[in-house]
Amino acid sequence: MKKYNFNAGPSVLPDVVLEAAAKAIIDFDGTGLSLLSISHRTPEFEAVLNEAQSLFKELLNIPDNYSVYFVGGGASTQFFHMPANFLGTKAGYVNTGVWTKKAIKEAKRYGEVKVLASSEDKNFTYIPKGFDIPADLDYLYICANNTIYGTEYKADINSPVPVIADMSSNILSRPIDVTKYAVIYGGAQKNLAPAGVTFVIVRDDMREKVVRELPIMMNVNTHIENNSMCNTPPVFPIYVLRETLKWMKAEGGLQVIYERNQKKAAMLYDEIDRNSLFKGTAEKEDRSAMNICFVMSEGNESLADEFMAFAKDRGMVGIKGHRLVGGFRASCYNACPVEAVEALVECMQEFEKLHK
Fold first, then answer.
1. What pLDDT digit, counting tens, does each position of 89-135 carry?
2. What is the pLDDT of residues 166-185, one digit of tens each?
């Protein structure tokens, strides 16, 4: 039976990327050595790293006054790396769920944190808008896409202060204006690679704004100056990330990927809104294209376990909602094919017919 992977992360990767990675595990670039056991200092791997950085800049149209580096530790490590480097006095945070709450907790270790807006009053089902951004902040922090609650910023924020954004779950899913951001970072295990590597994009002027003496591995300048190789980088995930970026370019670039993502999201949201057994959980204007969250409609809550089993029998994998919110979640990242969403929609329609 064909499987359709909707896992929230680690998530689906393109078949061509998996095939390239599998071959490289046996013989990397004709070296006769496995990718898993080569030195990161070899010219062959340095070429992989440099190409990954170059493709990142090309696909996102990153200006020359930005650096891209790769590190381990996941986005959760960046929750404290960012304030450790840049929070001298006061920073502003927008609270849109679990990940920003964790980032806020870490930032409080380094300075004053102003929660400028929050959607907690409605269980994080919308993106706050129209809030004031004080000009005396060291930076403004947002999480661009919220995997647990299925909400997403649809436009880049205009801010009088530097913006730091966690884009773990929607990086390279849509065009953005990189110049609106001082720092963009994220774990790569949603749209780019297996777990183990984190990307960080830093505007050059921020390098002069590191506010305190830090351990070597916490300072952003360490990783920029050493081209991601102050210590042994996560070699295998960086290779897969490079292959994913090559795939994106071959597919036609970010605009093509964006249009495909919009098609998938519209298809599934339309079915959620049409189907009498289901309802969406996020406000319509803030619905994520990456993480589509829904529950059984009122009066049909008792059918949840039955639908989960029904969907599993038809090859749907990873559609159980996060434990904090329940329900269902279909993560439709870049490599999720349109056919998978069509199969899920058909599954939902079949289930509705059984209960009419």
1. 999 999 999 999 999 999 999 999 999 999 999 999 999 999 999 99
2. 999 999 999 999 999 999 99
Taken in order 269, 275, 281, 282, the sign of the CA dihedral is: positive
Q: Three-state DSSP class for 114?
A: strand
29 is catalytic: no
CA nearest neighbour of 106 among 80, 81, 84, 85: 80
Enumerate residues 6+ apart whose C-beta is below 8 A from 307. Answer: 277, 296, 328, 351
3-state secondary structure at position 199? strand
- Say which of 101, 121, 129, 166 is annotated catalytic: 166
Task: Select which of 138, 190, 286, 320 is catalytic.
Answer: 190
Q: Which of 2, 90, 99, 180 is catalytic?
A: 99
Domain ranges, residue 331: 4-12+253-354
Active site residue 136: no
Which pLDDT band, with edges at 50, 70 and 90, does 1 fall under?
A: confident
Residues 164 and 222 in one domain: yes
- Could you identify the residue written with the tokens 């930005």? 66
> Total domain count for the chain?
2
pLDDT at position 356, please? 81
Based on the domain organization, do 244 and 262 belong to the same domain? no
| Active-site residue, 166 included | yes
Q: What angle is formed at CA 83 by the lines to CA 141 and CA 59, rounded to 5 degrees?
A: 55
Backbone angles phi, psi at 217, to 5 degrees: -75, -10
Query: pTM above 0.85?
Result: yes
